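Case 305 in the screening queue. Each case pairs one protein sequence with one candidate compound; here the compound is zinc ion. For every case the pipeline is the same: read the inputs, emit a complex structure as tokens, and attach any notable structural observations.

Predict complex for case 305.
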Amino acid sequence: MQIKDRLRRLKNCPPFIFSEITDVTVYYPGYTNKAVTFSYDDGLKLDAQLVSLFNEYGIKATFNLMGNSIPTNTSDLAGYVAMYEGHEVANHSMTHPDMSKANVTLEAATNDIVRGRDAISAAFGNKFNTSKWGFVWPYSKPGRGDIAQLEQNIKDAGAVYIRPVSTTNSFDLPTDWFLWEPTCKDAYLKDGSNYDYMTPLTNAFIADNTEGLRLLYIWGHAADLATKKYGAGYSELEAVLTKLTGGGVNIWSATNMEIYDYVNAANAIQISADGTRVENNSDIDVYASLNGQNVIIPAHGYSAL
Ligand SMILES: [Zn+2]
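Case 305 output:
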């Protein structure tokens, strides 16, 4: 366009230089509305086989470490830290106490969680942010009279999300990050009587055509996969990973924290007052469609049509 034409256009029709944005659809990276995340507990050396499998498929996961499971020997520690490279490490307390027990005081429970945080920080350095981390309850979310205060203490210590063991069988995003229930465990429950299980739910997730951001969230223990304690082993996990990364399937793989960050960024985008821009005040690029046109709304920037 010639300069004079552009000036004429500006003069004749301000402020409608850009099209009005009437339809914003937010996606995950890759313009998909489906994401998958995994969460594995306890941080034992058995995680090595699991991490290798995830790495083979380019899948990211979150590993919830017990402070006590972190090696103290310097050379073992180096290998342990290197093993989790590319994945998230989160806090699963120091000693895995049963916080539903009356003899675990509020102070003791809080201290155990803070010690877990500090042990991970000491081992992982700047790969772990002490003021922004995930927490997984040892055993399960405890039923105790002071649970609200305990959760507040965990938040005050830097947690931004908490995962229990209860599951939803659903692909909805959480409404409360401090009760971020997974879709399912990786294997059958002990009684084998329901479908709280990764294979049928992965099939359902791939077939799901609900609009909006969807999430398949699977949790488990490497030790249970190794022994098939709950019915599923590594071969079944590998079959699930094959489906999630297969041809014709577009699913974003992310750690728990990456999901947390991305969803918060996506939820915060806003259409400008004049309706011509979509603004992103977060630190993360957000994928979206504006009036049917795919755009990446840059971090601390905006997109227009
Ligand atoms: Zn555990």
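Case 305 observations:
- The longest strand covers residues 34-42.
- The chain has a mean pLDDT of 92.
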